[in-house]
């Protein structure tokens, strides 16, 4: 998938993380500890090449060997994107319990993406904590309403 994304446009590691997050509708957000070793491996295999650009960041682009490898593995690429499309469809058209599960998965993925959390300042951190606490309180209220309704 990384090779496929870079084939579409030269990218930085962080852009690839965001592209995968978007492709999976937030269900999976790879960590830098997954993406950067993968990029290094693909570069060592001759499938990608990098160049240092703005602020000493590496931008990766596909090589002729990488394009050939991608061509030879079109079915695998298609399968990955088909599964992602199915996950998106389930997320947007699934049953209500699945909607809650998907929301929880997206939330967990966001929290696991430490790069985002490390960039927060104190105000942003407090705002996010408040949002989470408000959400918990609202869920408790809904649950109380449901429980009270069941008793009646």
From TrEMBL:
The lineage of its organism: Bacteria, Pseudomonadati, Pseudomonadota, Gammaproteobacteria, Enterobacterales. Signal peptide: none annotated. This is PadR family transcriptional regulator. It comes from Providencia stuartii. It comes from the Bacteria. Residues 2-71 form the Transcription regulator PadR N-terminal domain. Pfam families: PadR.
């Amino acid at each position: 998938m990384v090779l496929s994304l870079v084939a579409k446009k030269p990218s930085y590691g962080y852009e690839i993380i965001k592209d995968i997050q978007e492709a999976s509708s937030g269900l999976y957000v790879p960590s830098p500890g997954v993406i950067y070793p993968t990029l290094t491996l693909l570069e060592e295999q001759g499938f990608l090449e990098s160049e240092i650009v703005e602020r000493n960041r590496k931008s990766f682009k596909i090589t002729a060997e990488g394009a050939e490898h991608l061509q030879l593995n079109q079915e695998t690429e298609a399968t990955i994107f088909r599964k992602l499309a199915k996950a998106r469809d389930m997320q947007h058209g699934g049953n209500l319990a699945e909607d809650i599960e998907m929301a929880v998965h997206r939330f967990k993925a966001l929290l696991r993406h430490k790069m985002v959390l490390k960039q927060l300042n104190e105000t942003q951190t407090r705002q996010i904590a408040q949002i989470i606490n408000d959400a918990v309180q609202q869920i408790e209220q809904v649950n109380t309403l449901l429980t009270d309704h069941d008793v009646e």
